[in-house]
Amino acid sequence: MINIVLMITYVFSAVAGSTLIKYGSLDNVGRALFTLPFFNMNITLMSLIGIVAYGVSFFTYIILLTRFDLSFISPLLIAFVYLLLMATAFIIFKEEITTYKLLGCSLILVGIILILAKQ
Question: Which domain covers residue 46, as residue numbers?
Fold first, then answer.
């Protein structure tokens, strides 16, 4: 049960991290807390929360790597993250979902089924 909670935590914190960093980089989101001069990147509160979410996903991923085979856990989690990011990009950022992206998602779902069937 704890492993499922860890997997869900990883997936949602990775998706939240990407989404919040992207959202925080938009011009109309808010005032920058500070700027990274080398990258010319403003860090807003949303971006900072996204970075923290990424940190949570990183440490959760390390824990999961110690509990599962790399060839099982990594493709499984990355697939779920990709699928959720595609939905997030469509819903929040109004990004286009093309036929190729839908085909790719379908293949990812088939891959998830095959990975889980072997377990």
Answer: 2-118
Rounded distance between C-alpha atoms, residue 43 and residue 32, angstroms = 5
- The total number of structural domains in the chain stands at 1
97: nearest Cα among 107, 108, 85: 85
- Of 22, 26, 45, 20, nearest to 34 (Cα)? 45
Adjacent-strand bridge partners of 42:
35
Q: 35-49: per-residue pLDDT in tens?
A: 777 877 778 888 899
Q: What is the DSSP string of 6-39?
A: HHHHHHHHHHHHHHHHHHHTSTTS---SEEETTT
pTM: 0.86
Sign of CA dihedral 80, 57, 8, 25: negative
Strand 34-36 versus strand 41-43 pairing type: antiparallel
